[in-house]
Amino acid sequence: MNKSELIDALAAKADVSKAVAGKLVDAFTETVTKAIVDGDSVVLVGFGSFSSGERAARTGRNPRTGEEISIAAARTAKFTPGKALKDAVNAKKAKKKK
Q: Same domain for 53 and 34?
């Protein structure tokens, strides 16, 4: 599902126009981005949490040449799914196996 498909689905589910749904998606992403950049986390109980993490500097290899390269430390965005989301995904997976 891409952004426009998400907007269409939200508009239909919430019975609002696509313009309003688009503004809400944009506002949500901007708000979560700002919180993560500021070092905060966003927790949606049952769905999951968005936060930032630290990735340590490390040594890697150029796959083409095999040469060792230095990879700098970086901050990353993380999403940790909540229990309800995990259970929903696993329930769908269990149905497919039957």
A: no
Token pair, residue 70, equals 């230095």
E strand or H helix at 44, and its extent?
A: strand 42-44
Whole-model pTM above 0.90? no
Q: Which domain holds residue 79?
A: 48-98
| Tens-place pLDDT, residues 2-19 | 999 999 999 999 999 999
Which H/E stretch holds residue 19?
Answer: helix 18-37
Q: Check whether residue 35 and residue 52 sit in a common domain.
A: no
C-alpha distances out from residue 51 to 9, 39, 42, 81, 82, Å? 26, 7, 7, 11, 13
- CATH number of the structural domain spanning residue 87: 4.10.520.10
pLDDT tens string 36-62 = 999 999 999 999 999 999 999 999 999
DSSP code for 2: -
